[in-house]
Amino acid sequence: MTDEIHLTINGKSVQAPAGTTIHKAAQLIGISIPTICFFDHCTANAICRICVVEVHGARTLIPSCVATISEGMVVETSTPRVNLSRRTILEMLASSVDLSEAPEILSLLKEYQADQNRFPDSQRRTPELIDDNPMYIRDYEKCILCWRCVQVCADDAQYAYAINFKNRGYHTEISTFYNISMPESTCVFCGQCVGVCPTGALKPKKQWLMEKGYTSDEIMSLTRSERKKKLNAHQKTANNSDGGEQC
């Protein structure tokens, strides 16, 4: 039988099975803790730190999406220290990333009264948009490095391992291995990475083209044209290879 843990969150008593995270325990009593990188169907990695809470007796703020509950724990989810931490993280994100298509984060910016111009000398992330396949585009100017796409492509769902982090620090980006194009990678174009992206950094190609003003007929024509171009290129390569063997 699973042991039940008793704790207090924001002055309310709650009990939950051992191994439950603080985030899930809070949900049991109707307390919502904000998250960005966390996704119910992905492994929690506490990357964004928006979900931090204050635990009595702990020196630092605790990421609630990975920290498990313990007997007698006392948790506060909205103290001045917690709110300052969340606001600062949001301000740093706004200073370097295009959040224009991240409604959940924009809502948090408003809720925590974050000043999007707090860091006027910050350097914006402006990598070039990658349009290398007929299924979706990669606009990493909008990427917050939440890791959701990497996780669903790996052990959490697809086991394709087509993408991962590259570089370090400010220059960290999501990329294919050796920076090859997506069609050359192990990507199976399942679309799960697009589905879990919270910021529009990954977007279906058709949606992207429609936002640029293309009609459905134009998009279909463009898609067929691209396909024909690729088939012709493939045939040309095959012919050259055959000719080389005959010489």
Keywords for this entry:
9 strands, 7 helices, 33% helix, 5-stranded mixed beta sheet, alpha+beta, 14% strand, two-stranded antiparallel ribbon, Ubiquitin-like (UB roll), 247 residues, 3 domains, Alpha-Beta Plaits
Structural topology:
Layout: E1 4-9, E2 12-17, H1 22-28, E3 52-55, E4 62-63, E5 74-76, H2 80-96, H3 103-111, E6 136-138, H4 148-153, E7 163-166, E8 173-176, H5 192-196, E9 202-204, H6 205-211, H7 216-246
Parallel strand pairs: 1-5
Antiparallel strand pairs: 1-2, 3-4, 3-5, 6-9, 7-8
Overall description:
- The protein has 3 domains: 75 residues, Ubiquitin-like (UB roll), CATH 3.10.20; 39 residues, no CATH class; 78 residues, Alpha-Beta Plaits, CATH 3.30.70.20.
- Helix content is 33%, strand content 14%.
- The protein contains 7 helices and 9 strands; from the N terminus they run ββαβββααβαββαβαα.
- A hairpin with a 2-residue loop joins strand 1 and strand 2.
- The radius of gyration is 23 Å and the shape is elongated.
